[in-house]
Structure prediction request, 97 residues.
Amino acid sequence: MAVSTARIASPNGRRYMTQLCKHWAHKFEVAYDETQGLVPFAADRRCRMAADAEGLTLTIETGEDGQMERLQGVVIDHLKRFAFREDLGEVVWMPAG
Prediction:
């Protein structure tokens, strides 16, 4: 399974995580609370989120070759829609091991 993580600095990380989870809960079996969330896009594709007072950490896991970049784009595009009032800066994804 390929894993990639990005950290977004924002005092609104918890709010954005909750919005993302509620948005995707219409389509997927999303689980979340005040500090973490899990969006299972498919059996071998998911996004884990962890939020705190300083920001939001996104972790994408996929077992499907060639899907990582697409999933990263989908997650960030949705995040930026909710964070349109705030400049999140450049999001840097790092492979996790």
Summary: The mean pLDDT is 94. The chain has two helices and six strands. Residues 2-87 form a domain with the TATA-Binding Protein fold (CATH 3.30.310.50).
